[in-house]
Amino acid sequence: MIAKGNEPDGNGADEERISSEERQGQLAGQFMGFGGLLRRWRKAAGVTQPPAARALGMGVRTYRKIERGATPPRFTRAQCDALATLLKLDRDERHALLLYNVGTSLDPSTTDSHPELRRALRLLVDRQMPSPTYLCDRYWNIIAFNTAMAEWWPWVMEPRANLMRWALTNQEARPQYHDWGKHASAYVKMLKFAEATNEDDAELRRLIEDVKKDPDVRHIWDTASELGETRDGHVFRMNVPALGWETVEVVSHVLYPASMPDCRFVVITWVEGDEEDDERDALGGARNAWANVSAAGRITSAREEAGARANQAEAERRRHAHMLTARLVVDSAEEAATLAGEDAVPLPVLSGLIGPDCRLTLAPAHRTVIWAAEEAPGEWAISEVDAQAVIARVPHAALLEEARAELKLLTRAALPAGSGAAVEHIQQLLPELEQRVNLLREIWRDLYEQDNALPPVRSSIDGF
Known about the structure:
The protein is an alpha+beta fold. It contains 19 helices and ten strands.
């Protein structure tokens, strides 16, 4: 028996020289809490108590009390790492060790280190059709998305697409959000939350510095003090270019895959409510209530997905974009182009307008576009999208003479296949477009009368 106040001599026999009271406590510890886990891990590794104590930088007596459950564990992250290495703990065991001691988990898995996870999650993303769905990493870089997401928001198909950079710094995003300022504030809250919980993350700092270069974002950042973790359960309105700028009320559902807890699996569902009621959203809650939600701890504003899907069948009727094939990954841009069929038509000018790592090919037989984006060397991600989705992505192409031929092909593909039906559809569209142009001219004229320094209203649109 060890004399009181003395530490054991460090060999394995010390473990057996304990009092009956200690032995009873040790047996209880096998079945109670962290002490029992620690003892089982050590025994399974064939390690005695003295080496385990040394790995933790403590005496054997103190370590023994922890195994017996008499002393709550207070291991640091470094101590946990040292013990996990000594005992050869697997990932789940390391996770438990950290949670018991420092209240955090392992660094999450990444799709780069586990490509099978990316393939599995892509399959799940595709299965959410017709709801727009995407997977992003902890920095909001887009990892995967389904066809509906690509049709509604084609920017996700661009190489290195990032939600924060698009929403906060890309001018095309602003007219798509109802009250962009409120949405920008919500995104800034999320960035501040991420900064507060990952202050030493270099990539996160680069993202924050990039978006703060925009003066509007910088102002929001400097004047806002609240934090927000996610947009889970947010109900908000968006103008979707692929739907002819129709206003849609959507719900954002944010999930965290267990195998990649730092990634966000986001499903966008849409609902229809009373358009005349500006006080309540489509789920019956106060409109834009999310704009005032902050997270001193964790945000708990999630809404039930079942409610968001209640009128999905009717909303689907209103979608102009098609449900197309699942997203693929091929080895080269040439291989991607072959997916458009024997009558494929390359669209090099429009491809260049979108970016150097993009390849667009019209598939006339299906009246769709094969959109290929190089995500990594030798890895081209393929999405088959409606022609209208590409037109909405590059509206400025209509002003470029070199792009007009390709844009004309896409515009024809977006119309009904039959000549008669196409003409009828054009006849329906032209009056609507003319009314919109006339309304814009009228507003322009009103503004000019208020401020003569503005350029005068032209009688026609340049380039037409």
